[in-house]
Design goal:
Chain lengths: 415, 415
């Protein structure tokens, strides 16, 4: 088999602590979704290819993993979660209570050129409210998004907001031709990464006269926040979000074509990897995709970047380990005693591992705990058995004490 | 798009309560894996096709979803979790602490003929211990498997155990030719679904003389449980499993070729959908697959069947709903009051939904709660605001009471 015993480029294994950290973050996010009463949704990895093709332009089509299945059907791997959700809404519209609030956390696949931070398989985390135009929906989406970062401990989150409708109006009144609106938006969207000159140059390459481009940028910069955005922010504030985290950003454009109202993007100032997600209102997309006339607003949270930010800012607890304690086995004759102790700890909900091979020396068992980052070890030798106690060793400090088993639980859990 | 706005045959959407029930079961299972100190593992959906092909025979090969990716590589969707785990062990062997105890819960894809209970995409739940021949590993695997069913509330679980080594010895001594051992095992494995006569007929078709077949079956039936199996069961007992759940089943064979020692299968007697999972020791497989000489023992839990059994036996709590309470909005002017109440409940970790559209009549809001199975509704009208109370309505009984907000929490959570 040779060189095939390896992961495909752009794909990742999550082993040990990396897998545990992901589980930690997934749980945090799910907790918040559920606290807000959002329902989980799961859709298949494969869909009819024709459902996916032509929805996001020809560039996106090239990134779809499509193939012919054994029954001769053209099928494709999930490219995003929006299209499958649209299909679900179309198929189940009579069963769903509206507004439908769902969250979805599944892998998507894109045949993109792999590079740092860009993978061919990654987890998307989306939440959307489908079926209401009430602006409290925008406010709730912002609140939900912010609440996730509070839950993770990333309190420094900043959210840039803008209104796509205002942006388009400005573009129209400045004299941008209708057929160039979206390509201009894509260029303007680069203003947080590129200089104004570079953006003006790109606009020029797209056929926008330099006077028009100049006037457009200065009009955008002097734009005042609209009454609607103010109301949304003030509602979000009453829902518990600190007002300071919001910045009105009249040049924020978001790449995707389909937004029709409020748009936003999240940033962690200390984290240099870029935006950690964003979203907005898209009232016409479901009609376009599946002929269902329902307004919608939602976000996609950047899972990999959020995890990276949480790691860099030390928000992932170091105790994200599977077992908190390893019960060692002193000798084959004392196996039963160790099993008894492990049972007691598990019964009391302490994540516990027992060393399975009583033939191995204690030294080797301690090394095992060390390699697996298990913070505590329990040793029960003949001396301990006689006195009905156990030896509890803290693997970080090296401290050890002989105590009653019942005392162990609080020592272990309080770490 | 027409008929493509639908799920592919053999694939499933999980919407609303179905998705919530799956989350409930996944959490239960993960809780137990973690209590035993097992590490999560995630591998990519796609692997090199050559890694997967030829490992489980030509029949299995036909079920693999393989295709050429955009870079001209032959790739294939995950068919099981054993081969990716073997690859991980080969790639990361220097980093992994042995024994490596991992669990993996990911989707697999098989281009099988869809039928009742058989899908083309389904979740596999595996746990394995890799790197020790100690029989306490068999005992722990049995204990872990049983503990999951206890956690779910499926206490009636029965486990059939046998030893593949003993079975093969019996086959050899009864005169089954070496090259027919595995095909005979596959026939014997059908003894719990087919009659003895049918099994004898099938053995005949496979070229086993009727005298030999007869003698084989009677030898198997009179087989006594080996000392090793007795030890394993007694160890599992000391780990907390009730001895009564085990049955020695000398004709239990398990379909897969690779087992080398203890094998087992789980059943819920009241559930008629068949075995809910099983596993065993496979000491030679990793050498065959990836040239790594490590012994292993593990199980695969049948997720769909286990969920079906839990539903049939009423073990899935009816309150597996996302929000426990809907805070209604009496009128646009009172929106802030409702938001305040929702904030308070969420802050106190009560999964809470707020009705977003203050223009909609209360009646419609109550219907929404009903359709979504939300058990409680809170109403805050002008009267309540004045007295600083809320109206809490139990949607099942129809009872409602006017109480202070702080009292609500216990009423809601105690249901």
């Amino acid at each position: 088999m040779g060189d095939q015993i390896q992961t495909l480029k752009g794909f990742r294994d999550f082993v040990g602590s990396q897998a545990r950290k992901r589980k930690w973050l997934i749980k945090k996010i799910e907790t918040v979704f559920e606290r807000f009463g959002y329902e989980p949704l799961e859709t298949p990895a494969l869909e009819y290819e024709s459902l996916l093709l032509g929805k996001y332009g020809t560039e996106a089509d090239k990134l779809i993993y499509g193939f012919e299945d054994r029954g001769g059907r053209r099928v494709a791997l999930r490219y995003d979660q929006t299209i499958p959700t649209a299909r679900v809404i179309s198929e189940y519209q009579n069963q769903l209570a509206l507004p439908y609030k769902r969250y979805q956390m599944q892998q998507v696949w894109r045949a993109d050129k792999p590079q740092k931070g860009r993978y061919r398989e990654f987890l998307q985390c989306d939440a959307d409210i489908i079926g209401t135009t009430a602006i409290s929906a925008e406010a709730e989406i912002l609140t939900l998004y912010a609440a996730i970062y509070t839950e993770i401990g990333l309190d420094s989150l900043k959210i840039k907001v803008n209104d796509r409708e205002d942006l388009i109006k400005t573009l129209e009144t400045t004299g941008i031709p209708l057929d160039k609106i979206f390509t201009v938006i894509q260029t303007i969207d680069k203003l947080d990464k590129k200089s104004k000159d570079e953006v003006r140059d790109e606009l020029g390459q797209k056929g926008i006269e330099s006077e028009v481009a100049k006037s457009l940028l200065s009009t955008l910069e002097s734009q005042k926040v609209s009454e609607k955005l103010q109301k949304i922010i003030s509602l979000a504030e009453s829902m518990g979000v600190k007002k300071e985290i919001f910045t009105f950003s009249p040049t924020l454009a978001r790449g995707l074509d389909y937004y029709t109202g409020m748009i936003f993007e999240g940033f962690i100032p200390e984290y240099k990897g870029g935006s950690v997600g964003g979203g907005g209102r898209y009232d016409k997309l479901l009609k376009q995709l599946v002929e269902v006339e329902l307004p919608a607003v939602g976000f996609g949270l950047g899972f990999d970047r959020t995890l990276e930010a949480a790691e860099q800012l030390d928000k992932v607890p170091s105790l994200v380990t599977t077992a908190l304690v390893l019960v060692t086995v002193f000798s084959p004759e004392l196996t039963d005693k160790s099993i008894e102790v492990a049972n007691y700890l598990r019964y009391n909900k302490v994540p516990t591992e027992i060393y399975l091979d009583s033939e191995k020396k204690l030294d080797r068992q301690l090394k095992y705990a060390n390699k697996k980052d298990i913070p505590f070890v329990i040793i029960i030798g003949p001396e301990e058995v006689g006195k009905n106690i156990v030896k509890l060793k803290d693997m970080r400090s090296g401290d050890q004490k002989s105590i009653e088993l019942s005392e162990c639980i609080s020592s272990i859990l309080s770490r």
